[in-house]
Amino acid sequence: MRIRESDQCGMAEQLPEDAVGRRVSCDGERATVRYVGPVPPTTGLWLGVEWDNPERGKHDGNHEGVCYFTCRHPTGGSFVRPKKVSFGVDYLSAVKQRYELDLDQAIGEEVQISSKTVKMVGFESIMEQQRMENLTEIALINCEVSGPGPENEIKINTPNAVSLDLSGNLLSSWEVVSAITEQLENLQELCLSHNYLSIASSPSNLSPAFSQLRVLTLNNCALTWSQVLHCAPMWPQLEELFLNGNNITELQRPVDDVLQGLKVLDLSNNCLVQESVLQISDLSRLEVLNLSSTGLSTIHISDASPGGKTEMFPALKVLLLDDNKITEWAVINELVKLRALVQFSCKRNPLMDLEKNRETTRQLLIARTNNLEILNRSQVLPEERRGAELDYCKKFGRAWLQAGGHSDPEKNHPSAEFIKEHPRYLALIQKYGAPEEDELKEEKPFALKDQLLTVTFECPEEADRKPIQKKLPNSMIVQKVKGLLYRLLKLPGSELRLSYTSTKMEGKEIEIDNDLKSLQFYSVEDGDRILVRWS
Fold it and tell me: What percentage of the chain exceeds 70 in pLDDT?
């Protein structure tokens, strides 16, 4: 490392010659050096730093009318003495401190345990794995790594690294990172979370340093989407990109073939401009997209009519929208247009509270989406789907008739407004047949008579399973009860048989044999035991 000597008022200070722009730690906080020099009327050398945590500072780089440097935040800056900061260590020093052990001392060593002397047999193989040249996964989290160290030493000492975690270090630029990774020819996974990196001026020139990289994690790096796209030519083979908690707002369409190999993209915990989300819909290989905690409330896919399929996101299988502001079923209707979607999550959205019962909301979500296999991280079983879709047909059957629907296919012409609100309805009645007139009951508001029953589920043929107590509405149909049990008991592919016993009818077991009837129909009361068997 090149050293600069500065002698002011008889005091010699030693600093890296490239100190400005370097990352440092001071009293447990991280900062970037913005200024090196005097600050009159004091004597000696000062470092002007911009803190990662703006509450740590006192000003914005101005002192007594003189602007020494600038900060993004009015209280993001401070002046500190050089002796108070650490410029970090090189990669190899951190690896040695983290992994290297004295093999000669450890092998064959005897240790005293209680009154017995035990020889560390087999310890040699463990120690051998810890040798630097044998490491394939290297984690240097919060180790204050700031640079590569001596030339070619990384390549000599850790040639087999496939995965490298450099989270929370003192790396200052992509050039510094590439000086490390270019020596790791087999590197496929890299984590740089909690590093503030200056953006490379010529990212394409650095691409050989990341030629094998498949997975890149850049969480909490204060990046914008424009900066990500600018850096993207560095990562020609990238398949998974994690960008949680950055400064990403408005998305732009990737151009020049960057990011076209992406299969996984995590944009969670960024305040997105929701109208810009479709700007990334041309990523033809994208299979997993995480948009949780991004402030989304709506989405509109314009290239497909209700019930149709879009050309956007052609490979998207998994979409995560947890912790957003979705309030309307219209959003779900838009997502049905995605061709490949099989897994979806929207936990902790206002939408989940539209119905009195969360189980009812789940059933409506299943019925409105035709190909979902996993909803809110819980498997959708065939029996649950069938019950949800049948119930959906009955629930909105009256509205369908009023909108122009008819049991005769030739007369079945519901309004465009109904189709927009229920794009799957026609497909469902084609699948199951139109609901019968006596099944189309008027929707009634929740009342006290729709009381909750406390029932206990027991498995008499498996004594090791503990009874499960649940509160269920007496209007809940048996099919929904079974759907609940499949998830509670984790019994995919089994056929459930239910019966119940009551304290009012000691010794008598009543079979529950119609999936479309309610608990109330079978006179299940508060405190009853429902017996669960399967084959």
Answer: 89
